[in-house]
Amino acid sequence: MQEPIEQPGAGDPDHFQRLWTPHRMAYIKGENKPTGTGPGDGCPFCEIPKMSDQEGLIVARGSSVFAVLNLYPYNSGHLMVVPYRHVADYTELDEGETAELADFTKRALLALRKASGAQGFNVGMNLGHVAGAGIAAHLHQHIVPRWGGDTNFMPVVGHTKVLPQLLQDTRELLAGAWPA
Predict the structure, then answer these.
(1) Residue-wise pLDDT tens digits, 61-94
(2) Range of the domain at 129
């Protein structure tokens, strides 16, 4: 008869290292997500511009759009370019908003290369919930810096991202590198 395999109890060592990320629970639970589709429905992208740059993690402000760090970044320096106006779809932007969004995307690439030596980027928008937009009611473009070998066993096996820099420190670095 085979001996039963002894299972460790709660809190017993099992030779695995654990990286706890309880702050991610806010994202999982959908905290700070809008309660509706209108600008007055708790949209964080409508609230952020009312904050100081430091408090809102704003890297740069334009007349139609602003650049802000993602609270739940895929990589250090993960920025979003967001129009001030509460619109859901890219086709709803006027010509000035479209031009400034494109300009801020270029500036974000330049700032990230200067500040962090980014070797590549993922740039894009998820339009609509079915396309993966976490906040579908307010358009935002993601700019995610990438480096050779930045995907390792942690996100692939452990489903955990290890970010080497605090958001406030990243904001200071990128704001200082933002092209005039």
Answers:
(1) 999 999 999 988 888 999 999 999 999 999 999 9
(2) 24-177
d(CA 79, CA 69): 4
- Are 24 and 73 in contact by the 8 Å Cβ rule? The answer is no
**CA–CA gap between residue 146 and residue 132 (Å, rounded):** 20
The answer to the question of residue 55 being in a domain is yes
Query: Residues of the chain whose pLDDT is less than 70?
Result: 1-21, 23-24, 26-40, 152-160
Active site residues: 140
Q: What is the CATH number of the domain that holds 104?
A: 3.30.428.10
Count CB atoms within 10 A of the CB of residue 108: 26
Average pLDDT, the chain: 84
For the whole model, what pTM was predicted? Answer: 0.73
Nearest to residue 151, comparing CAs of 119, 115, 106, 111?
119
